[in-house]
């Protein structure tokens, strides 16, 4: 399929949802105002039926347009190429000689945040053709280091020897540079997310609707390889569960996050999306049981969900949630449970979560590596997808808009809009970079602006 065709197909799908967000929001407001609420609810229910039918047909179209198998094969091929390039970068012929970048795994944050820290380091390494050395002694999840839980990120090159280490930003000639945390970089290199390599971009966009998270997922795929003991612990826990498709993944992040970095979301908000997913799925297939894999750091949620939604089958391990909920969170004890949760969330057919959580975003990134395209297989109750510390995320106006209310902004076709978020009511907030005005713009009049960067092309690695 051509890039244009794929973009158009995804645009129709996304804008079908945007119509729904708009109508749903406006009519629900009227219901709350008690204006003929029963009549309005009936209209909304009918609209929802029609929306599900439209989306379901569009998904079928994608399966029947003759490129379904091609997308799968191409995704596997490009993934394989990236993995081989990373392997090449991480195993230089002469380690002593190789240029290196040092990444210290001493960030005081949760596991999702630490994974993203290594992803950032690996992207840096790939962009500057330096082998990544991971310093992880004293790591909060295993005092002895990363290599005691996961396969080392290099088989042959794990030290900078006695070479002088220079703190980045450093000159290109420096043989070994050490990286600060992404949050404290003032002049951000252009290759940081959400940029993707230009030599692969035109291949990726033809099988994936969200290339930036696909690219980040590829870094995770390279990094996150549990060693035998850890893999066995994960497998044993999974074996105890009746994990079968179709299944929806729900990630509920509570405890310390609520009120500090994210708002509280009631179980009903997640289940509304789960119900919507199953109602759409049931248009085309018989669903024997509405299964949900529930991952959370709140020890009470699982039981609560089971009591409240008896018609659903909830999978999940209360002891994992319990460990995550207590102060044992950042210790080796909690790691197996979190890895089980991440692996299983990434294997579900649809993910309902909050992208304000790094755990939610990691699950989605891993999902992107498990299939050709997971970009329409999630629902985030809050943020749109992002990478902490990323460069500006813009959308480009593809239709003109004249502001109709004081909080709206006007745009011309071609304008770049720095995006703050989607309000899931048909509008998003952003700043028009031409006019320097900030406000709401109808989301469907904009399209994601993908940033390409000329990463090295690793010509030594066979295509
Ligand atoms: P964030 O704070 O949600 O953005 O993500 P972090 O990964 O930085 O920190 C959250 C920590 O809480 C994780 O590392 C886990 O230890 C714990 N946690 C959060 N959600 C879950 C979950 O669904 N399952 C488990 N097992 N642990 C979780």
Bound molecules: guanosine-5'-diphosphate
Biggest beta-sheet profile: 5 strands, parallel
Weakly predicted, low-confidence segments: none
Mind telling me the C-alpha Rg?
A: 23 Å
Give, in spatial order, the strands making up the sheet with the most strands.
8-7-6-9-10
Fold and architecture overview:
- By secondary structure, the chain is α/β, with parallel strands linked by helices.
- The chain is built from twelve helices and 16 strands.
- The strands form four sheets. A five-stranded parallel sheet has the order 8-7-6-9-10, with helices on both faces. A five-stranded antiparallel sheet has the order 14-13-12-11-15. Strands 2-1-4-3 form a four-stranded parallel sheet, covered by helices on one side.
- Helix 4 crosses helix 6.
- The mean pLDDT is 95.
- The site of guanosine-5'-diphosphate has 21 residues, from helix 4, strand 7, helix 10, helix 11 and helix 12.
List keywords for this structure.
five-stranded parallel sheet; alpha/beta; 15% strand; 463 residues; globular; five-stranded antiparallel sheet; binds guanosine-5'-diphosphate
Please outline what is shown here.
This protein is α/β, with parallel strands linked by helices.
Task: Record the SSE blueprint.
Elements: H1 3-32, H2 37-64, H3 68-90, E1 100-104, H4 111-128, E2 131-135, E3 165-167, E4 176-178, E5 196-197, H5 198-204, H6 211-223, H7 228-239, E6 247-252, H8 267-281, E7 291-296, H9 301-308, E8 313-315, H10 318-325, H11 332-347, E9 350-353, H12 358-370, E10 378-380, E11 394-397, E12 416-422, E13 427-432, E14 437-442, E15 446-448, E16 452-453
Parallel strand pairs: 1-2, 1-4, 3-4, 5-16, 6-7, 6-9, 7-8, 9-10
Antiparallel strand pairs: 11-12, 11-15, 12-13, 13-14
Helix pairs in contact: 1-2, 2-8, 3-6, 4-6, 4-12, 6-12, 7-11, 10-11, 11-12
């Amino acid at each position: 399929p051509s890039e244009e065709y794929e973009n158009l197909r995804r645009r129709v799908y996304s804008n079908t949802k945007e119509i729904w967000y708009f109508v749903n929001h406006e009519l629900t407001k009227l219901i709350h105002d008690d204006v003929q609420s029963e009549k309005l609810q009936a209209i909304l229910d009918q609209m929802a039926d029609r929306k599900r039918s439209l989306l379901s047909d569009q998904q079928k179209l994608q399966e029947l347009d003759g490129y379904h198998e091609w997308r799968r094969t191409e995704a596997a091929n490009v993934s394989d190429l990236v993995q081989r390039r990373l392997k090449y970068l991480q195993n230089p012929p002469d380690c002593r000689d190789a240029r290196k970048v040092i990444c210290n795994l001493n960030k005081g944050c949760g596991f999702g945040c630490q994974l993203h820290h290594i992803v950032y380091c690996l992207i840096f390494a790939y962009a500057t053709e330096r082998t990544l050395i991971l310093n992880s002694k004293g790591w909060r999840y295993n005092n002895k280091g990363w290599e005691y839980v996961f396969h080392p990120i290099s088989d042959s090159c794990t030290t900078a020897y006695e070479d002088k280490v220079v703190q980045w930003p450093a000159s290109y000639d420096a043989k070994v540079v050490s990286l600060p945390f992404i949050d404290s970089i003032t002049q951000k290199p252009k290759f940081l997310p959400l940029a993707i390599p230009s030599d692969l971009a035109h291949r990726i966009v033809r099988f994936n609707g969200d290339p930036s998270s696909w690219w980040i997922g590829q870094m995770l795929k390279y990094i996150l390889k549990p060693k035998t003991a850890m893999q066995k612990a994960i497998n044993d826990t999974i074996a105890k569960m009746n994990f079968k498709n179709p299944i929806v993944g729900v990630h509920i992040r509570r405890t310390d996050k609520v009120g500090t970095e994210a708002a509280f979301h009631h179980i009903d908000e997640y289940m509304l999306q789960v119900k919507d997913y199953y109602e759409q799925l049931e248009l085309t297939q018989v669903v024997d049981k509405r299964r949900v894999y529930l991952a959370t750091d709140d020890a009470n949620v699982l039981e609560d969900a089971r009591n409240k939604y008896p018609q659903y089958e909830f999978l999940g391990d209360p002891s994992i949630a319990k460990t995550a909920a207590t102060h044992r969170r950042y210790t080796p004890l909690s790691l197996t449970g979190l890895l089980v949760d991440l692996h299983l969330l990434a294997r579900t057919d649809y993910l309902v979560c909050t992208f304000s959580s790094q755990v939610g975003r990691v699950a989605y990134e891993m999902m992107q590596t498990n299939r050709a395209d997971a970009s329409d297989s999630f629902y985030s109750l809050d943020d749109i997808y992002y990478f902490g510390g990323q460069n500006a995320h813009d959308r480009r106006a593809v239709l003109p808009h004249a502001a109709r209310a004081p909080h709206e902004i006007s745009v011309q076709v071609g304008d770049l809009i720095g995006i703050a978020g989607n309000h899931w009511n048909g509008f998003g907030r952003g700043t028009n970079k031409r006019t320097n005005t900030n406000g709401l713009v109808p989301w469907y009049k904009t399209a994601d602006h993908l940033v390409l960067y000329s990463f090295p092309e690793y010509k030594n690695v066979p295509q």
